[in-house]
Design goal:
Number of helices: 3
Shape: elongated
Bound molecules: zinc ion
Order of helices and strands: EEHHH
Radius of gyration: 20 Å
Strand order of the largest sheet: 1-2
Length: 106
């Protein structure tokens, strides 16, 4: 998270601040950050969706990510393989959208 600034006096405030600590003005709700959360999509994955998750979260071309990952398997002495497994374990799966099962999460 990044620091936000009071639109009235310019004081730096923590992202969770709702009021300026200097002048007391109400801080508008922060705009949602564009981009997608880091999740492993169900649709379109090849193995575990780690490459697709990284590509979508960073705006990269998934084909490039996959090529670099495969090359990394061979040339990194196993580091990429470990990193892939770490991503597999550490990156949450994309929540499955089941129509009617849950209320809209907005
Ligand atoms: Zn202020």
């Amino acid at each position: 998270m990044s620091v936000q600034f009071c639109h009235q006096c310019g004081t730096g405030l923590p992202p969770s601040a709702r009021f300026c600590s200097s002048c007391g003005v109400v801080i508008p709700v922060a705009q949602s950050v564009p981009g997608r959360p880091l999740v492993r999509p169900i649709v379109g994955r090849q193995i575990a969706g780690v490459c697709l998750a990284l590509a979508q979260a960073n705006g990269w071309d998934v084909a490039v990510v996959r090529i670099l990952t495969v090359l990394g398997f061979f040339f990194s002495g196993g580091f990429v393989g470990i990193a892939y497994l770490a991503g597999w374990i550490g990156i949450p799966e994309e929540p499955i959208q089941v129509p009617g099962a849950y209320p809209p999460n907005l």
